[in-house]
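Hi team,

Below is the intake form for Nucleoside diphosphate kinase from Nyctereutes procyonoides. Please confirm the fields before the structure is written into the shared record.

FORM ID: S-0412
PROTEIN: Nucleoside diphosphate kinase
ORGANISM: Nyctereutes procyonoides
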Amino acid sequence: MLTVLAHHFPAAGEQERTFLAVKPDGVQWRLVGEIMRRFERKGFKLVALKLVQASDELLREHYARLRERPFYGRLVDYMHSGPMVAMVWQGLDVVRAARALIGATDRADAAPGTIRGDFCVEVGKNVIHGSDSVESARREIALWFHSDELLCWEDSA
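The structure came back. Fields below:
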């Protein structure tokens, strides 16, 4: 049975949550299933998922800490250029593990076997976004999902 959680984030030491978004290039290249498969194989639990065309307002808030960077405008425009798949994954140390699965931001630094190492074409189109800390994950999850969209379910495996 699925239970909807209101404003629930696991406490420290418990299973944490992270925000991931397959960027427009990843959606266009039909990589959503492959990316999800990698997280499922690691044993993480999907607790929220949606296909979205993000608004400029949402993207500007999401990338607010990069506002002063020279690529900020291009980044927001690119992220608004097509649909994205927003997800929340849960598991033990999921933020750090997700960053390892994703790989370095720059494709030249992304190891083979990582998502970016296997699929990234250029640094500006690097397939996937992942929260870089537990605090960022909390902020990003709250930006992209309402509390009633986060589901808690029992794993029967």
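SUMMARY LINE: The longest strand covers residues 45-52.

Thanks, M.
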